[in-house]
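Quick start: what a row looks like.
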Amino acid sequence: MIETLRRRAFFVDTCLRQLAVFAGPADTLGTTDSMRARDLEFYSGAEAYRFLLETAAGLNSAIPAETNVFGQFKRAWANCQEQSVVLSSRLAAPMNRLFADTRQIRAAFLQGVGGASYGSLVRKILRPATNERVLFIGAGNLTRSMLPFFRCAEVAVWNRSYPQQAIAAWAYRYRPEQAEAAARWASQAILTTPANYANDQLWTNLLQRHEVGRVAHLGRRNNQLGPWANFDGVFSLDDVLQLQRTQSNVRSLQVERARHACRELAARRAANYSEPNTTAKQLTRAFG
């Protein structure tokens, strides 16, 4: 069945679903009955275009507004153009319009709608510049998960014991006895260690002495002031979680606005489009 669809339709295989886009209803003859027996989803006209637009924009993904699926659409379309000149020429106008509309929706409603990992959240809080020197204090799993989000800056790691081998590929390493040198090097710092009076006292002294102004401490809550009581510019885990809640609310609002825009745009396209309707079929249960 999949090979038949690949020959007769523009076929998109994403991580969540498989889609077959036909140039018109006549092209589905010979497949419709067997496919309907599998309880698949069928769309045509404005509904087909709305579904494709929402999917390409990332609105139907597990993480709403993600960008990977748009890349999958573009790669699948390039493959379709290589394999079938006739099919791609018939679908060229609606597909070009779909890609342009997807960019429009993302630019208007989904810019800056990102994930909610610690790395992405702390990066938004600290806003490191490309010439920033970011010191991670602690070399555990949390640090390793965050390092890829700070590739725009220089990064280094200090730990009470020598950092693990996995850290070497990502960052400069400071030995336990080099805490002073690490603080002198840094312009921003991220502590991924638990709140500990002795460790926090060490780093408040070092970071203040070397005028490191922006610090995120992911092991400290707002009610755990300790040595940080007089340290200006330190963010706690509570600040990170508050940003996550705010970002989630904003994301939900932006995604809903984007969905509404997709529906309106699809209706306008259908009203102005005189060529055969595009039919989209979601093949999740049959082939996913």
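That is the whole record. The domain at 118-243 is CATH 3.40.50.720 (Rossmann fold). Residues 274-288 have pLDDT under 50 and may be disordered.
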